[in-house]
Every structure is written in C-alpha cells, then in structure tokens.
C-alpha cells in the first residue's frame, strides 16, 4: 500500500517539483472489518466511552447489551450465537417491509454498480422528483408538495415551519397535545410533551397544550384565542402509549380548523406508511390534514428518509415565490440518490405485497389474541389497544403492590423500573424467548408492538405463545427471574 507521502508524489506533474507537504500521520482508526469483528465486550466498552454511558445502564437492565446482531432478515435479527430474535419492536415502526428486503438490496446494488449520483443540491434529481411524485400520488386531496429530509424530527420541523409561515405572523400560536412526541430537535421540542426531553432548554413560548383527542378543549382554545394558527397532532400517539382517537374526533377537528382558519399538521412519522392498516392513519376518518410528515418506514429499514407533505395552497403561501423559495429548501442530504430509490422501491413493495392490508388483518388478529391473554391474566394485563400493527399492551402498575420482599432488590437495580412489568417482561421475552418488544417513553407500563408489516399469522402465534408462557409464571416469579437475569 502507498503511504501518504508517496500518494502526494503521484499527483500529476505540473512542471516544477511541488513543495512537499508535511506528512499527516494516519490515526489509529478502526476499519470496517474491525467493526464487524468486534466482541460484545468491546461494543459495551466503546458504547460507554464514546456514545452514551448512561444509556448502557438501561441496555444492561433489558439485556440488550449482550446481543451482537450479525445479520437481519425479514422478521428476525440473527445474533452472534445464530439465535433468531423475533422483531416485534420493528425499529419503532421503521421496518414496514422487514429487514433487508431483497428488492431493496437489488435496487441499491444496481444503483451503486451504475455509478449513479447521490448529492442533489446542485442539479435536479430524477430520484427525488419520482419519490415526490409517488408521495403525491399516494396522499389524498391536494397534499402534493414534498420536502425530503432524513429524520422524523427534520420532517416535523419542516411541517411546523411551513404551517407557521402559511398561518402568518398574526397567528403565531401552536396547539399541541399532552403526551405528544414530535422529535428532539430544538424546534419541535417545544411541542414534545416530555419534561425529561425538554430538560432546561429554552423553548418557544407561543404554544397551547390540550389533552389528546379532546375536541372540546380544542374548540375552546380556537374560540378563545384568535392568535392560534396551527395545531400539531400525532394521528396515533406512539410515545404516549399507543393512543388513538375516534374518526368523529378527526372529522370535527377538520371542521373546526376550516371554520377558524387553523392549519392542521398530522404527524404520521410513526403511524404512517401503512402501519395502521391504511397508508396514513388519518385516512380511517376520511379526512385530509393540511400538512403531514413521514419518516421511519419510508426508508424501507435500509436508509434515513423523511418527507413533509403539504397541501399545495399552504406550500405556495409559505414558499411559493422566488423570494421565499429558499427559506426552507432542501438541506445537503435532502433527496440523496440511494435513499430516494430505496424509498421509491419500498413504497412499491408496500403495494405489490399488499402489506397495508396485511397490517390490518394481522393487527386485528394480534389484538384479538392479546385480548384472549387479557381475559386469562386480568390481574396482569390492564388493556390492549391500537390499530393495524401498532399495538399497545398495558400492564397494571405494580409500583405500589410489588411484594415487600422484592421492592428493595428491584429499586436497587433501577428506580425507574420499580414495579414496571414492561421492563421485566421485555427483558425476559428477549432472554428466554428470543423475542424483542419496544418500550414507551411516557408510560412505563406499556409495551409497544410494531412488527414489520410482512408479519404472518405464524409470527403473531409465536409472539403470543411466548408471552402466554411468560405470564403463566406469575408476577413473583417474573420479578425474581428478572432479578436473576441481572445477576446471571
Ligand atoms: C410521531 C413521531 N414524530 C417524530 C419523531 C422523530 O423522528 P426521528 O427520531 O426520526 O427524528 C418520532 C420518533 O420516534 C415519532 O414517533
């Protein structure tokens, strides 16, 4: 291999000898091969040293820190021991088409082999144009104008900004819901209802908080405060614990927004892309918001892709003239080539494989089977709820009723998990049944189930049978086994 100095001398001769630049030593960098071959112990120590030592604490509680994923395929992760882990976490809804869908791999390989371009900041991109066209074709009404980004937070920032500009300076206030989650970037943090995430950050103060799905509270707010110009709601609250609202709520919301000239932003970052059994969850109510946002599964589980989609009229009001066009034009990686073609293919797979319909069918079956478990274990399961393959499983709160002998041991391990069955159950599902579930930011008693939409009846059965077997141990043994998992 050539060293840095030799490479410099290899540059095309331009006549006289170029002055030698001082050599820059190659730092002790890890290679891709090193990363692939890393031991679990090294992963733990590098995560602690360079990523997030505090988070490692939670990973240890859940047993996540013992897993090194070697491969992923369809509904499964495959770990360092060849164990297939059933994925009912689904990257919080990022894996609609499952892990490593072969059609996505093929498109991405072809794109690379053909030497296609990625950065779309100078010339227009045929890939971004096609993706935007697809999103407009899927989206109802005149939700036609698309901004492409990389993350849900970025799409939601774009959504709030386009709405704020269209609402105009005389209507600067934004309504948002209790237990909302719209991202952690500085702008949307102001409408993300978490004291933990908000910390001591300075927030935008022109916000109005209402209970989720409370139409009277929204009506009162609109009627009493003419400065309100925008309302932002997740169509199904994810971080809040999988909370839905009935169709009548959304229909009345649309009516109220029209009456008061308020712009409705529907956050579909988690519940969109087919998860609820319709492409957008708001379609269940037969209404169309003014602005919406997608991310997560839009990237097919292979890439970071997000979109804000606005009604043409709203978009044109905000950025429609050459003078305003660049105010929120795409960022450096907005509409990057391979991410766009991955999203284009993912959307086609979604329809070709009828995954939206499958989400409705398997979601209903999962709900029904979980209701069966609730009837069997009424003292453990409080409620099951959701739509499509976005399901919440809420356990009774045991923080006050945990047997006295167990309390000190559990609280010694972690104060937050005290009496939270979801943590114990999630950890044991992984350890004893190779099954992965997700937790919920604001409600520690809720497990979130968001498997890939390729989920079959057999996967639902596998999941429910694992959970049944675990719950059959009873609370005391579950807690004891969890404590054991921390020692062993
Ligand atoms: C409803 C909702 N909005 C926005 C976001 C933010 O997305 P990201 O984590 O990609 O920034 C999330 C992420 O979980 C989400 O669930």
From TrEMBL:
<dbReference type="Pfam" id="PF00202">
    <property type="entry name" value="Aminotran_3"/>
</dbReference>
<protein>
    <submittedName>
        <fullName>Aminotransferase class III</fullName>
    </submittedName>
</protein>
<dbReference type="InterPro" id="IPR015424">
    <property type="entry name" value="PyrdxlP-dep_Trfase"/>
</dbReference>
<dbReference type="InterPro" id="IPR005814">
    <property type="entry name" value="Aminotrans_3"/>
</dbReference>
<dbReference type="InterPro" id="IPR015421">
    <property type="entry name" value="PyrdxlP-dep_Trfase_major"/>
</dbReference>
<dbReference type="GO" id="GO:0042802">
    <property type="term" value="F:identical protein binding"/>
</dbReference>
<feature type="compositionally biased region" description="Basic and acidic residues">
    <location>
        <begin position="1"/>
        <end position="10"/>
    </location>
</feature>
<feature type="region of interest" description="Disordered">
    <location>
        <begin position="1"/>
        <end position="22"/>
    </location>
</feature>
<keyword id="KW-0028">Amino-acid biosynthesis</keyword>
<keyword id="KW-0032">Aminotransferase</keyword>
<keyword id="KW-0055">Arginine biosynthesis</keyword>
<dbReference type="GO" id="GO:0006526">
    <property type="term" value="P:L-arginine biosynthetic process"/>
</dbReference>
<dbReference type="InterPro" id="IPR050103">
    <property type="entry name" value="Class-III_PLP-dep_AT"/>
</dbReference>
<keyword id="KW-0663">Pyridoxal phosphate</keyword>
<keyword id="KW-0808">Transferase</keyword>
<dbReference type="GO" id="GO:0030170">
    <property type="term" value="F:pyridoxal phosphate binding"/>
</dbReference>
<dbReference type="GO" id="GO:0008483">
    <property type="term" value="F:transaminase activity"/>
</dbReference>
<feature type="compositionally biased region" description="Low complexity">
    <location>
        <begin position="11"/>
        <end position="21"/>
    </location>
</feature>
<comment type="similarity">
    <text>Belongs to the class-III pyridoxal-phosphate-dependent aminotransferase family.</text>
</comment>
<dbReference type="InterPro" id="IPR049704">
    <property type="entry name" value="Aminotrans_3_PPA_site"/>
</dbReference>
<dbReference type="InterPro" id="IPR015422">
    <property type="entry name" value="PyrdxlP-dep_Trfase_small"/>
</dbReference>
């Amino acid at each position: 291999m050539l060293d840095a100095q030799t490479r410099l001398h290899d540059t095309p001769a331009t006549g006289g000898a170029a002055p030698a630049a001082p050599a820059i030593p190659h730092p002790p960098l890890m290679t891709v091969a090193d990363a692939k071959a890393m031991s679990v112990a090294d992963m733990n120590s590098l995560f602690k040293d360079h990523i997030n030592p505090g988070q490692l604490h939670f990973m240890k509680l859940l047993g996540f820190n013992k897993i090194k994923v070697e491969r992923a395929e369809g509904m499964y992760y495959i770990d360092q021991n060849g164990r297939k882990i059933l994925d009912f976490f689904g990257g919080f809804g990022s894996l609609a088409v499952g892990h490593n869908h072969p059609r996505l791999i093929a498109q991405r390989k072809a794109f690379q082999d053909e030497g296609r371009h990625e950065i779309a900041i100078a010339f227009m991109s045929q890939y971004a144009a096609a993706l935007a066209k697809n999103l407009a074709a899927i989206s109802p009404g005149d939700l036609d104008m698309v901004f492409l980004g990389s993350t849900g937070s970025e799409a939601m920032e774009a959504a709030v900004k386009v709405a704020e500009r269209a609402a105009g300076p005389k209507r600067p206030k934004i309504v948002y819901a209790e237990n909302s989650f719209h991202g952690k970037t500085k702008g949307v943090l102001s409408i993300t209802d978490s004291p933990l995430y908000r910390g001591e950050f300075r927030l935008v103060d022109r916000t109005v908080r209402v209970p989720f799905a409370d139409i009277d509270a929204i009506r009162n707010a609109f009627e009493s405060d003419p400065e309100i110009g925008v309302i932002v709601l997740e169509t199904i609250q994810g971080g809040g614990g999988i909370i839905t609202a009935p169709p009548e709520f959304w229909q009345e919301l649309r009516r109220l927004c029209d009456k008061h000239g308020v712009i409705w932003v529907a956050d579909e970052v988690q519940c969109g892309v087919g998860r609820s059994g319709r492409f957008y969850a708001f379609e269940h109510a037969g209404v169309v918001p003014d602005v919406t946002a997608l991310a997560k599964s839009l990237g097919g589980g292979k890439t970071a892709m997000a979109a804000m989609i606005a009604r043409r009229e709203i978009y044109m009001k905000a950025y429609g003239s050459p003078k305003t066009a660049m105010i929120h034009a795409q960022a450096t990686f907005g509409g990057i080539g391979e991410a766009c073609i991955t999203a284009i293919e993912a959307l086609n797979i979604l329809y070709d494989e009828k995954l939206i319909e499958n989400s409705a069918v398997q979601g209903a079956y999962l709900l029904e089977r979980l209701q069966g478990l609730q009837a069997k274990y009424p003292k453990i399961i409080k409620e099951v709820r959701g739509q499509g393959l976005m399901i919440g499983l809420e356990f009774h709160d045991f923080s006050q009723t945990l047997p006295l002998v167990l309390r000190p041991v559990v609280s010694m391990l972690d104060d937050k998990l005290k009496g939270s069955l979801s943590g114990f159950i999630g950890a044991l599902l992984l350890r004893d049944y190779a099954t992965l579930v997700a937790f919920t930011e604001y409600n520690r008693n809720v497990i979130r189930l968001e498997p890939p939409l390729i989920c079959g009846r057999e996967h639902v059965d596998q999941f429910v049978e694992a959970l049944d077997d675990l719950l059959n141990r009873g609370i005391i043994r579950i807690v004891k086994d969890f404590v054991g998992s921390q020692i062993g």
